[in-house]
Amino acid sequence: MKKPIIYITRKVPEDLIKPHEDKFDVRMWEKAEEPVPREVLMEETRLADGLLCMLSEKIDEELFLASPNLKVVSNLAVGYDNIDVEAAQEHQIVVTNTPDVLTETTADLGFALLMATARRVVEANDYIKNNKWKNWAPYLLAGADIHHKTIGIVGMGRIGEAVARRATGFGMSILYHNRTRKPDAERELGATYTSFDELLTEADFIVSVVPLTDETHKIFNEEAFAKMKDSAIFINISRGATVDEAALVQALQTKQIQAAGLDVFEQEPISAEHPLMKLDNVVCLPHIGSASTETRTEMIELCLDNISRVINGEVAKTPVSS
D-isomer specific 2-hydroxyacid dehydrogenase catalytic domain: which residues (predicted)? Predict the structure, then answer.
């Protein structure tokens, strides 16, 4: 009997695939750091029963129409704005993601980015590497304190709450804005619910953890940056398109805000010639929020488990809905 086919759009460790090889014909794009070309993706999914994809792949109506055997699309991420979920449902294709397993790791990275930006860690490292350190001075590369400041978290989901837990260890006041109030977070973390505008004006650190939707697209725009303190530091670990990057560049160049730490961008990857990369008051990372070895391994295992379950007629562990 012919085995069901699973296609993986990026090279993953062979030892993660081995447990599934008895039941499935597992195929994958053989490059770990280069996205699968669209034409290869279309050809490979034509016969596939399950698809494990990355955020870099556009999974849409065209692909579904060309993939009559496809039963499940498993996205290696929490967000799934790269997938047309409504079209998938129309074709009776299950879409899954990887919530929970990356929450703490992404929050670690978010807080690391906040700290690196506030204390000018990357700039200070480059200062020595470029042989600029000649003498000690009282305000040499002086940054901003983090302890006992006010953090404003926009998007109080799992990752937002995990960031807030870390903030409590620094004695920070926690403001948050979310579609719905989170009484548990307010009670357990001492977080205070505010309007978006109030958060922008009051917070010393503004952290974006919102999903990308029509409502959040470029929510951080010229008007939003104008409301922030001139000492404010903006951190984005959500999606690049939640930010109007031209407005952010302007706010940073004019010192309307103090600094920014970014793990995501409107167009990825960005080049070294991007205006943000020319600024000393920005720390940029290549979308590595969940990139610990342990977490990425657990994410891949969850994706494969979801695919296996659906193909075998079982309910997926972490399905998403439109």
Answer: 7-320
